[in-house]
Amino acid sequence: MAVTLADVAARARVSAATVSRVLSGNYPVAAGTRGRVLRAVEELAYVVNGPASALAAASSDLVGILVNDIADPFFGIIAGAVQTELSGAAQGGEKLAVVCNTGGSPERELTYLTLLQRQRAAAVILTGSASEDAAHARALTATLARLAEAGTRVVLCGRPTGVAAAAEATGAVPGESQGAEETREPGKARGAGKTPEADEAPPRVPLTALTTLAFDNRGGARQLTAHLIGLGHRRIGCVAGPAGRTTTGERLAGHRAALAAYGIEDTPRRTVHGAYDRASGYDAAAELLRREAGLTAIVAANDTAALGVCAAVRDRGLRIPEDVSVAGFDDLPFSVDATPALTTVRLPLQETGARAGRLAMGREERPPGGLATLRAELIVRASTSVPCP
Amino acid sequence: MAVTLADVAARARVSAATVSRVLSGNYPVAAGTRGRVLRAVEELAYVVNGPASALAAASSDLVGILVNDIADPFFGIIAGAVQTELSGAAQGGEKLAVVCNTGGSPERELTYLTLLQRQRAAAVILTGSASEDAAHARALTATLARLAEAGTRVVLCGRPTGVAAAAEATGAVPGESQGAEETREPGKARGAGKTPEADEAPPRVPLTALTTLAFDNRGGARQLTAHLIGLGHRRIGCVAGPAGRTTTGERLAGHRAALAAYGIEDTPRRTVHGAYDRASGYDAAAELLRREAGLTAIVAANDTAALGVCAAVRDRGLRIPEDVSVAGFDDLPFSVDATPALTTVRLPLQETGARAGRLAMGREERPPGGLATLRAELIVRASTSVPCP
DNA sequence: CTCGCGATAGAAAGCGCTTACTGAATCTGC
DNA sequence: GCAGATTCAGTAAGCGCTTTCTATCGCGAG
Asked: Is the CB of A17 under 7 A from strand D?
């Protein structure tokens, strides 16, 4: 039915081996022969059988990317950057990105990881926040370890917990992430010296196959809240992200750290959790305002939620930023176009995605210790101002 | 190194065939045996080797989705819906979505298609507008034909040209798309009767493997412009999408059809082309206003561009909608939150994506003639109103 | 001249899994 | 109880490609 290597070989009057060599190009083939083969390939419109070559060569050109929500620009930007990097490199050959939508579900995350392992993916990139549930963290670590063991490169993009758990599993102790673009050594990896006798040793997580690119969520949130406090705000509401997720925890911690630094009391009633969408932002802000009408500022879980917050504030007849300042997070493309333009914290999404892509292709060296924390930058725009009492 | 079927078989004290049968579950295996096998699989943490099984079974569980820009919610929504559908079905097994970012480049489109063919993808879904370039259309048709011939299901989602070209290639003549949710028979497919002698016949495009889900861009645009005209607007600017793309052409045609229906003269200077992003919208609107300060309304290529249009209008000191009405297209999630909320045309993105997913899995019957045009719905919000002279 | 070496091309052994075929029990109905 | 239907498990032949290991051909060195 389909054209195979053998067909090409027959047509070019060479052996299958030669055709294979011409196509993979890692073996000397005389120019004339190569030409004949290439012509035959052309004439027969031959396309390599991926599964077959993956089986024979024990390697594949698939790279998996796990995202929480593919319709969310946050992930779209990262995924886009990754893919550009994957296909940009002539060297190493075109890789195919497999984007998997977990919807934030730990189970689906595991399912996809297994599916990717089944495909013998060359690399796997996990993006976005992770569940803080211990049981899931353990299961995830185990799966990641199996993947790494099978030679799949693993890159965690914006999720520190993973590496912490994995490192913990191997006894290494990563320092507390905090600085920006700092990289630290979580204790030298134990020498992987060949121990012929220890053939039955428990499979240790090859930490060297795991790289983490973390966002400085905590620092960014701290800066943002500090900015608000600097403007004179004292009653600041917080629309936090989904409960039980690493990113939510980090941003909340930064927010509270700023509050604490300025000696401002923080009460639970000024925090409401919600998803990263407009409706959640709207509901959360409405709830916040109901609880305490005197709030002068609200920080949202991200820019999308901030849009909902703005709508809720306005529906209450309040002006932004005169009555209530509103701030987002992530600096998604549309936030500059919101009215008023959103003050937010910019995360280097594009850059991080590209870096993750390079790491996945093995085209970039992993940072020392396998961990790099990327700077978050405060972007002040029109949605925040001094409170007008 | 890795655990194989044979290892599991040995551990369960059965043959490899039996393990395979238990795992794929399409052959009777005694309950006891099945239990032993499953236990062994569990104990050894066995994961099927995808490439190997794909090779042996001559089938894969990969489904490719081509999008113009993965960071654009338009595609994100479609892709998300597709993926939900792919993994939602217990029946037929979990499929893996491979999302490919073409960036709107015809070459990359072809490249990805070849890459997917190499992986022997079970199905391929092409979304978004296509290039109107004839040479590319031909190349695309040829590639699609090869894919279809190899048994890959092909679904075109929001791009009518593809099927037209393919149909043309087989001699069928699809009627002019126009109605909403109408489906029509582009001439009965030629009987595919088995002709033993014709074994060397030129490979005909198996049209039955191709399905098109088209958006009624023309109708939507017509409604939108008619709405504007109905409000009293006569000088309407148009920020069209990228030149040379099917979607752009369709929307423009609808716009002009409405204009013509009301006897309003259309001049080229009221149309400017641009990309589907905010910056393009901004620039295009600025240009339009420079050319003709008296415009009372502007329709944008899509919601994202509309955001830019709004910004440009405001920067000129004009109010929306009092001085200039602005309308978008697609009804992306954020458009309801724009200020003022955007009047736009809703496209059933989610629904279409889901349908494409089902079609790709072979879980839904293709519409008669392989073509279904999906209704576009005018959504009137606050950004359009009667012109205030 | 003959030997040996570099440069190429071919032969063949799998890679791990699926799936006809077979084969051996265990059931049916008479 | 026995022929024939059933049910379940094993055998083995590939799927299409990669990759050793060999073989051949020239050609300059000895």
From this structure: yes
Q: What angle do CA B205, B211, B212 make, to 5 degrees?
A: 120
DSSP H helical ranges for chain B: 5-12, 16-24, 31-44, 50-57, 73-88, 106-118, 134-149, 160-170, 217-231, 246-261, 278-291, 303-315, 349-361
The structure's pTM equals: 0.86
**Which tokens hold the place of B383?**
């950004």
Model pLDDT for residues A27-67, shown as the tens digit of each residue: 889 999 999 999 999 999 999 999 999 999 998 999 999 99
Instruction: Name, in order, each residue with C-beta under 8 angstroms of A345's C-beta and a sequence gap of 6 or more.
Output: A220, A221, A223, A224, A327, A328, A329, A330, A331, A376, A377, A378, A379
User: Which tokens go with A5?
Assistant: 């290597």
Query: Tens digits of per-residue pLDDT, B342-365?
Result: 999 999 999 999 999 999 999 999
Cβ–Cβ < 8 Å for A325, A343: yes
Q: Length of chain A, please?
A: 389
Residue B144 C-alpha, separation from nearest chain A C-alpha, in angstroms: 13
Classify residue A151 by its DSSP letter.
T
Instruction: For A14-25, give the DSSP string.
Output: S-HHHHHHHHH-
How far, in Å, CA of A67 to CA of A80, rounded? 12
Q: What percent of chain A has pLDDT over 90?
A: 77
Residue from A44, A32, A36, A33 nearest A5 by CA: A44
Report pLDDT digits (tens) over A142-153: 999 999 999 999
Q: Pick the closest to residue A264 from A228, A300, A239 (CA basis).
A: A228
pLDDT at A337: 80
Backbone angles phi, psi at B214, to 5 degrees: -100, 150
C-alpha–C-alpha distance, residues B151 and A13, integer Å: 29
Q: How far apart are the first and last CA of chain A?
A: 78
Rounded mean pLDDT, B313-323:
96
The answer to whether B80 and B114 have CB atoms below 8 angstroms apart is no
State whether residue B380 sits within 8 Å of chain A by CB.
Answer: no
Query: B115 vs A96: CB contact, 8 Å cut-off?
Result: yes
Q: How many CA atoms, within 13 angstroms, populate the side-chain half-sphere of residue B50?
A: 25
Chain A interface includes B144 (CB < 8 A): no
Name the DSSP class of B30. -
Residues B30-60 pLDDT 10s: 999 999 999 999 999 999 999 999 999 998 9
**Contact (CB, 8 A) for B276 and B302:** yes
CA distance A73 to A91: 29
Q: Is the CB of B335 under 7 A from strand D?
A: no
Q: How far apart are the first and last CA of chain B?
A: 79
Residues of A with Cβ-Cβ distance to B90 under 8 angstroms:
none
Q: Which residues contact A308 (CB under 8 A, 6 or more apart)?
A: A277, A278, A279, A280, A281, A282, A283, A284, A285, A300, B337
Nearest nt by C1' to A12 Cα: C9
B45: tokens are: 């943490």
Q: What is the dihedral of CA B278, A65, A72, A104, to 10 degrees?
A: -170
The residues that bridge with A131 in the sheet, in sequence order, are A245
CB B175 within 8 A of CB B184: yes
| Nearest nucleotide (C1') to alpha carbon of B2 | C16
